[in-house]
Q: What sequence folds into this?
């Protein structure tokens, strides 16, 4: 039996209408109206999205290239993390009013197989947190530091893009678990102050003030043991130079290169990985879903105790989702960039 509430006749959703060349522009996207109806097939739900995520990996999906996740299709709705309220259900175990996390963002309403949704409890944390600190970015930070980089107490840790959704958590996780020193890079003086103030980093620098390598050397005169890479390019080269023997690097992102129209040159000092016995390892969060239970237990505890600070940059309205995405690529966010849909 279908359970539902009164619905509007149409929903709005963002489509990719052309593939960006270099930096995306507003003309690459279109906000379109589509008919809306409650599901009739058994086992499905209709969700009114309340919050959606914009993330760096989405830029790669706008290119028509083979990767670990399929590219966005032209003239079709884009997708990504979203959390919302069930407004119609033909699925056992899902009732109108339930809050769920799912993968059909970039639209006001999402109709999906209930197997693709996970119930979340808004009484434990704000719903938007399930897109950030308790969601994919949080698990990325947790797994990338503790598993991929094999962090251990006493390590000196450098994080690039340290004021972003993932980086801001990596540095704090390292501090909480006993890092000897935590260093971060960011793109503004205000973000640098947030890193050393609110987030408790030992040192931070503005990479726009000059070359990364000398700023990193000043911030970490005894070198680093772990590098968490969200940026690539010059940052990765500088980190390779600063890593101590048996240093480890988690290669999580390369946002400095996502909009390049020609291939970026590799680090010029990669041979140091041989003489220093370095481990440079890429990561995909999908490989670490087995850590989910422990991750939520640890991180929710750190939030409750006040050891962990978390920030969101919130943009209101589905109309402004593309602006939020482009702003995130430009580094306009502190912490997680979220789009909240007005009712």
A:
């Amino acid at each position: 039996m279908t359970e539902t509430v009164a619905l509007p006749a149409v929903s709005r959703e963002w489509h990719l209408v052309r593939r960006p060349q270099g930096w995306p522009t507003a003309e690459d996207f279109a906000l379109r109206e589509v008919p809306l109806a409650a599901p009739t097939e058994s086992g499905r739900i209709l969700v009114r999205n309340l919050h959606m995520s914009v993330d760096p990996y989405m830029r790669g999906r706008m290119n028509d290239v083979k990767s670990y996740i399929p590219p966005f299709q032209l003239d079709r709705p884009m997708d990504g993390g979203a959390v919302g309220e069930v407004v119609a259900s033909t699925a056992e175990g899902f009732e109108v009013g339930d809050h769920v996390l799912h993968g059909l963002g970039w639209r006001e309403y999402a109709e999906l197989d209930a197997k693709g949704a996970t119930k979340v409890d808004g009484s434990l944390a704000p719903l938007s947190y399930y897109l950030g600190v308790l969601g994919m970015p949080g698990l990325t930070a947790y797994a990338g530091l503790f598993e991929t980089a094999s962090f251990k107490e006493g390590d000196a840790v450098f994080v690039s893009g340290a004021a972003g959704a993932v980086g801001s958590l990596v540095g704090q996780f390292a501090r909480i678990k006993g890092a000897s020193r935590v260093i971060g890079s960011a793109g503004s003086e205000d973000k640098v102050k947030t890193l050393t103030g609110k987030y408790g980093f030992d040192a931070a620098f503005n990479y726009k003030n000059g070359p990364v390598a000398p700023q990193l050397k000043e911030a970490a005169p005894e070198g680093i043991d772990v590098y968490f890479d969200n940026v690539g390019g010059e940052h990765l080269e500088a980190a390779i130079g600063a890593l101590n023997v048996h240093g480890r690097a988690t290669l999580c992102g390369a946002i400095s290169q996502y909009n390049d129209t020609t291939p970026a040159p590799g680090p010029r000092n990669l041979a140091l990985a041989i003489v220093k016995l370095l481990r440079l390892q890429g990561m995909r969060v999908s490989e670490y879903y087995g850590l989910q239970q422990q991750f939520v237990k640890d991180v929710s505890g750190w939030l409750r105790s006040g050891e962990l600070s978390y920030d969101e940059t919130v943009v209101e309205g589905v109309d402004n989702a593309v602006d939020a995405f482009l702003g995130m690529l430009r580094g306009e966010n502190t912490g997680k960039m979220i789009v909240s849909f007005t009712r």
